[in-house]
Amino acid sequence: MTITITAFKQSPDRGRGLARDMRVRWALEEAGQPYEVRLLSFEQLKQPAYRTLHPFGQIPAYQEGDLILFESGAIILHIAERHGGLLPLDAIARARAISWMFAALNTVE
Ligand SMILES: N[C@@H](CCC(=O)N[C@@H](CS)C(=O)NCC(=O)O)C(=O)O
């Protein structure tokens, strides 16, 4: 099943990798999963059609067949649960890693 993520057509950070599609690309690369990127303008993000993928009209959105996800953390957790190598197998270590994942998206960010 093809994975498609969305990203800015024109990068407001001038290509410094700060936009939140970067963390999803990174997870997919680490997991060795091929993916396609759909580049969108700000105007396209705000269209009703795109809001069916992302209710807030932002990037990144993730599409894999019938599965549509938004929020980079949720997308990365999905990738990590589906493919080996990103989360420890041991339950306690896994819970600790997920705790850091939430910290990164909340306290740290
Ligand atoms: N909490 C969301 C934040 C998504 C977000 O803020 N995306 C920004 C780019 S990094 C965006 O699309 N901004 C355009 C806008 O809000 O109009 C996530 O982690 O996915």
TrEMBL record:
Residues 8-87 form the GST N-terminal domain. PROSITE patterns: GST_NTER (PS50404). It comes from the Bacteria. InterPro entries: Glutathione_S-Trfase (IPR040079), Glutathione_S-Trfase_N (IPR004045), Thioredoxin-like_sf (IPR036249). This is Glutathione S-transferase. It holds the Pfam family GST_N. GO terms for molecular function: transferase activity.
